[in-house]
Amino acid sequence: EQLIMIDAAYRASAKRITAVCPFYGYARQDRKAEGREPITARLVADMFKAAGAKRMISIDLHSGQIQGFFDGPVDHLTAMKVLEDYVRQEATEPVIVSPDAGRIKVAERMAQHLDDCGADLAFIYKRRPKGTANVAEAAEVMGDVEGRLCVLTDDMIDTAGTIVAAAELLMERGAREVWAMATHGVLSGPAVDRLKNSKLERIVLSNTLPLPPEKQLPKVEVLSVAPLIAEALGAVFDDTSVSDIFDGDNLA
């Protein structure tokens, strides 16, 4: 539908078209992990270009390299400020936990920003069995979590296997309480049942994706990223810096 709207605007002689994609579809398929796999994230970028989009705005891409797939400016926003404000208001001395090695950098940055409320950092060593998709095994916790409120942070919750396994491991290692925070609540397949039966006390998501009624659990809270997008669009059309809005923290 978005591609059709872009094509309509292009054919109506729009001066410039900016595609706003809070959630970039197929973002995890950004490389060939095994033979005969597509690189769908690149295909999506090519489709936007073919339709007539000259610029793209997205939030918390799965990997920063996706910006290079699009032949034009990409404004990579981050919902980190929104999530950090929530933690600052609701928690004291939390441990920010990366659910795998790939998110350590983001979790470390978040812990640094939350230094004023005594935040610490930990991460979980995770392995994926070869030849499987959406299957992860949480192996060990690196960091002091005993008796602490642990906040798992990730870019998305898809089938929820990673986040639920991580929460169970943290509780086994003595965590007092575990929350999960993610920008994109995909919640596909068994995710809702897994989250409902998990040891997670709170699940905080942003509204980059709509949350239908059947996925709205009592422990799920949704935060709005509309002000972030509005501010970025204002900067784009005023020809000012988008990165300054985030103090450069959107350049991961």
List keywords for this structure.
alpha/beta, three-stranded parallel beta sheet, 252 residues
Describe the overall structure:
It is a single chain. This protein is an alpha/beta fold and 252 residues long. Helices cover 29% and strands 23% of the residues. It has 7 helices and 10 strands. It has a 7-stranded mixed beta sheet with strand order 6-5-4-7-8-9-10, with helices on both faces.
Rg? 19 Å
Spell out the helices and strands N to C: HEHEEHEHEEEHEHEEH
Q: Name the strands of the widest sheet in spatial order.
A: 6-5-4-7-8-9-10
- The total beta strand count reads 10
Give a brief description.
The protein is α/β, with parallel strands linked by helices. It has helices at residues 2-11, 40-51, 80-90, 104-113, 161-172, 191-196, 226-237, and strands at residues 18-21, 55-59, 74-77, 95-98, 120-127, 137-142, 149-157, 177-185, 202-206, 220-223. The protein starts with a helix and ends in a 15-residue tail after the last helix.
